[in-house]
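Task: sequence design from structure.
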C-alpha cells in the first residue's frame, strides 16, 4: 500500500497536471470579480463598479497576456507552459472562457440596468427620449460633440482610417440620396468626451443617461449630408500593448519613447463589434482594418463596459458603500506629528486603506523640510500625476539635500507618466536612476538619512504597495516604518545594487536581514519552506500561512507540495492567479487556498512560518514583501522580503491581519483541486465575520500610542472566525 502511495506521489510530482494554467486561473479570478456584480449584499452602484472593473481587467488581459500567446502561435512556438498546454491550446481555451465571461457580463448588465431603472436611473436608447430631450440633445451635440467629430469616407480615394487601441468607432453603410454610388463612413468617437451623457433632470427627479454613440447616431445626416443610412454598427479595437525592450538597447529612455509610439499601432488582437451589424458591413470592417477572422467578437449588448463607471454619480450616495475615512496613527499625533520621533520610539506598521496614506506623505515631507536630513532615497514604480511624494522629493533637492529616485519606466501602462515625472525630478536636481534594462525595480522603499548629534541615523519605509495616494484608498497594503539600523543598511544596499551595478551579479551585496530578488529571495523562501517540512518529519509543530496576489512559480509550488506531503498544514490567501492545486490526495491534501474579493483590492503580501510552534505564535517568522510568488517577481525584478521583528508589529501582522483574512466569511472563495472556486456561505450572514469591516471598525496595534495601554482591538482566534 505504501509503495503504491509512493508511486502515485511520484507520478503526480512529475506530471504537468500538478499545475493549473496561469491564464485560465486569471480568468477565474476575473469571474470572481464579476460575481460581485450579482452580490446583493453590495449597494447597487457598487455592483455596477465591479462590472466595470471586470471589463477593464479583461481589456488589459487581452492587450498583454492573450496578445503575447497569439504572437507565440504566429511565431510557430510549441513549447508548453508548466501545466503542459501549448500556446495554441491556451489560446483556444482562453477564447472559450473569455466568450463565456463576456456573455455573463452582458447578462449582468441587463439585470443591473433593470434594477437601476427601479431606482430611477435610466440608460436610454434614442427612441425612448422625450421631444424636449431630443431638442436639448441637439443643442448639446452641436456645441459639444459636433466640433470634435471627424466623419471619414472609405472609398478608393480615402483608405480605411487607423483606429487606436481601445478606440470606438461607428461604421455606417451609406446610400446616396441622389442615386449615386454609396460608400462606408467611419466616425471615430472622440476620446475626451464622456461616454454617457446625462440629460437634465425630469420633473419626476429621474436620472437619465444616453450613450455617446446613440447621440451621434441621431445626427448622422449632419455628418454625411447627401447620404442616408442603410445600416450601422459600433466597433472597438483592442491592440497588442506589450512592450519588449532589446537587451542591447544603448539608450533605455530613447528606446522606450519609440516603443510607446508603436504601442498605439500594435497588432489587433480583438475586434469587438455589435452582433446587429449586417454580415456585409462586418466583413468589410474586418477586412479593411486588417483583422483576422479569429479576432472578431460579436456583442449582443453594450461595448466598452469599463466606462459604465461613469454612471456612478455622487448624488446617489445611498447606492454606494458608506464613506470611510482612514485613521491616522495616534502615536504620531501624540508626538506632535513628528514621524521620526514616533519611529525612534518603536516600529510602526500602517495598514492601508484602513489607515491613512497621509502618514507616508508626511514622512517624506518632513524629511524634505528637516534641516538635519542629509539624504533621501526613494523607489517610484507607480504614482499619481500630481504626486505629493514627488513634490516633496523636488522640494528636498531644491533645498540642497542629496536625493536619489529609482524611477521604473517599465511599469506597464505608466511608462509615459514615469518618463514625465523623471524629467521633472531631474530638472529639480534629483539624481534619477532607471534601473536595469532586463529587470524592473518593483521594491517599495524609502530611505531617509538624518544627522542626529555626531551620528547619522537611517529611517526606512518598506511597503507592499506603490507610493500612490489614490490607490492607497482602494488597495490593502502594509507600510512599515523603522529605525532599525540593520534594515536601514539593507535598504541602502538595495539602492546601491540598482544604482551601481550594470546587471545583477551572481553574488550580490551581503544583506543582514532582508531578502532581495533576483538574488536570494526565492532561495530563502524555499529554505524556510523546507525547514517547516523538516520540522514536520520530526514530529514538531509546523505550519505556513501566506498571503499574496498571485502564485505561479513552479519551483516554489513544488516545494509547497513537498511540505504538504511531509504533513505541514499550509493556508494560502491568494487574491488572483493560483497555479497550485490544493487538496489533492497524495500531493497537496494539507494545503488550503482561499481568495478574498470585496470592497477593497487585496494587495499586501505576507508570509508566516511556524518556526517550531503552532501558528499563530510570538516565535513565528513573519515577513512582508513587495513580491508575489511568480517567476517574474523572483527572478526578473528587484523585490524585497522584509522580516517583522518588533513584537507589537509582529502581533499586528500575524494575529490581527492574517487571522482576520483567514477567518473572513463574507467575501471569501475556497479553491477546489480542479481550479474552480466556491463562495463561502456563512450560516448567518448577519453575524458572519467580515475582515474588511473588522479593519474599518478596529484600530491596528502598532499605531495606537498611549491608548493601547487602556484599550485593545478585539482579539481574534484563528478557529471559528469570531471576535473574542
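Answer:
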Amino acid at each position: 500500500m505504501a509503495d503504491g502511495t509512493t508511486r502515485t506521489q511520484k507520478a503526480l510530482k512529475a506530471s504537468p497536471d500538478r499545475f493549473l494554467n496561469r491564464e485560465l486561473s486569471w480568468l477565474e479570478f476575473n469571474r470572481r470579480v464579476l460575481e460581485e456584480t450579482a452580490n446583493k449584499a453590495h449597494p447597487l452602484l457598487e455592483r455596477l463598479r465591479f462590472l466595470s472593473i471586470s471589463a477593464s481587467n479583461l481589456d488589459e488581459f487581452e492587450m498583454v497576456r492573450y496578445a503575447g500567446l497569439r504572437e507565440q502561435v504566429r511565431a510557430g512556438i510549441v513549447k508548453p507552459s508548466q501545466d503542459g498546454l501549448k500556446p495554441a491550446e491556451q489560446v483556444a481555451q482562453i477564447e472559450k472562457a473569455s466568450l463565456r465571461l463576456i456573455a455573463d457580463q452582458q447578462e449582468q448588465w441587463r439585470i443591473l440596468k433593470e434594477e437601476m431603472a427601479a431606482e430611477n436611473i435610466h440608460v436610454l436608447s434614442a427612441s425612448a427620449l422625450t421631444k424636449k430631450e431630443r431638442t436639448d440633445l441637439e443643442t448639446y451635440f452641436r456645441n459639444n460633440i459636433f466640433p470634435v467629430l471627424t466623419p471619414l469616407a472609405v472609398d478608393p480615394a480615402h483608405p480605411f482610417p487607423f483606429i487606436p487601441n481601445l478606440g470606438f468607432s461607428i461604421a455606417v453603410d451609406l446610400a446616396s440620396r441622389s442615386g449615386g454610388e454609396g460608400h462606408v463612413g467611419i466616425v471615430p468617437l472622440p476620446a475626451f468626451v464622456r461616454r454617457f451623457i446625462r440629460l437634465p433632470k425630469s420633473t419626476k427627479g429621474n436620472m437619465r443617461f444616453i450613450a455617446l454613440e446613440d447621440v451621434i447616431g441621431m445626427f448622422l445626416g449632419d455628418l454625411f449630408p447627401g447620404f442616408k443610412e442603410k445600416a450601422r454598427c459600433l466597433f472597438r479595437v483592442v491592440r497588442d500593448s506589450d512592450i519588449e525592450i532589446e537587451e542591447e538597447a544603448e539608450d533605455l529612455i530613447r528606446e522606450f519613447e519609440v516603443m510607446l509610439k508603436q504601442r498605439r499601432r500594435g497588432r489587433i488582437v480583438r475586434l469587438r463589434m455589435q452582433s446587429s451589424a449586417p454580415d456585409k458591413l462586418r466583413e468589410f470592417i474586418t477586412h479593411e482594418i486588417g483583422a483576422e477572422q479569429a479576432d472578431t467578437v460579436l456583442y449582443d449588448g453594450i461595448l466598452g463596459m469599463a466606462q459604465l463607471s461613469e454612471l456612478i454619480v455622487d448624488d446617489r450616495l445611498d447606492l454606494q458603500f458608506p464613506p470611510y475615512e482612514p485613521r491616522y496613527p495616534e502615536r504620531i499625533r501624540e508626538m506632535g506629528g513628528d514621524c521620526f520621533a514616533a519611529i525612534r520610539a518603536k516600529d510602526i506598521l500602517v495598514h492601508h486603506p484602513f489607515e491613512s496614506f497621509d502618514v507616508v506623505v508626511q514622512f517624506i515631507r518632513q524629511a524634505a523640510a528637516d534641516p538635519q536630513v542629509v539624504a533621501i532615497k526613494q523607489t517610484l514604480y507607480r504614482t499619481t500625476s500630481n504626486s505629493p511624494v514627488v513634490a516633496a522629493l523636488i522640494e528636498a533637492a531644491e533645498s540642497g539635500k542629496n536625493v536619489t529616485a529609482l524611477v521604473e519606466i517599465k511599469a506597464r501602462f505608466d511608462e509615459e507618466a514615469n518618463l514625465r515625472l523623471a524629467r521633472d525630478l531631474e530638472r529639480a536636481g534629483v539624481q534619477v536612476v532607471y534601473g536595469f534594462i532586463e529587470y524592473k525595480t518593483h521594491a517599495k522603499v524609502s530611505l531617509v538619512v538624518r544627522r542626529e548629534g555626531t551620528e547619522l541615523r537611517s529611517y526606512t519605509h518598506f511597503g507592499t504597495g506603490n507610493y500612490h495616494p489614490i490607490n492607497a484608498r482602494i488597495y490593502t497594503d502594509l507600510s512599515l516604518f523603522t529605525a532599525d539600523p540593520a534594515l536601514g543598511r539593507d535598504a541602502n544596499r538595495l539602492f546601491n545594487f540598482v544604482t551601481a551595478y550594470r546587471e545583477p551579479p551572481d553574488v550580490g551585496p551581503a544583506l543582514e536581514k532582508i531578502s532581495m530578488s533576483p538574488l536570494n529571495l526565492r532561495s530563502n523562501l524555499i529554505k524556510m519552506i523546507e525547514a517547516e517540512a523538516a520540522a514536520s518529519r520530526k514530529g514538531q509543530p509546523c505550519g505556513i500561512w501566506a498571503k499574496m496576489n498571485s502564485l505561479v512559480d513552479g519551483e516554489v509550488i513544488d516545494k509547497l507540495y513537498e511540505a504538504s506531503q511531509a504533513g505541514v498544514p499550509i493556508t494560502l490567501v491568494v487574491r488572483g492567479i493560483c497555479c497550485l492545486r490544493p487538496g489533492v490526495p497524495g500531493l497537496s491534501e494539507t494545503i488550503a487556498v482561499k481568495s478574498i474579493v470585496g470592497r477593497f483590492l487585496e494587495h499586501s503580501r505576507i508570509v508566516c512560518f511556524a518556526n517550531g510552534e503552532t501558528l499563530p505564535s510570538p516565535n513565528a517568522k513573519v515577513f512582508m514583501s513587495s513580491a508575489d510568488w511568480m517567476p517574474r517577481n523572483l527572478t526578473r525584478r528587484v523585490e524585497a522580503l522584509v522580516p517583522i521583528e518588533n513584537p507589537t508589529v509582529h502581533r499586528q501582522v500575524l494575529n490581527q491581519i492574517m487571522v482576520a483574512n483567514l477567518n473572513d466569511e463574507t467575501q471569501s472563495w475556497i479553491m477546489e483541486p480542479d481550479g474552480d472556486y466556491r463562495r463561502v456561505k456563512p450560516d448567518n450572514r448577519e453575524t458572519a465575520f467580515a475582515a474588511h469591516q473588522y479593519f474599518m471598525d478596529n484600530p491596528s496595534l502598532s499605531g495606537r500610542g498611549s491608548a493601547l495601554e487602556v484599550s485593545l482591538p478585539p482579539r481574534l482566534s484563528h478557529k471559528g472566525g469570531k471576535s473574542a
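The domain at 515-709 is CATH 3.30.870.10 (Endonuclease; Chain A).
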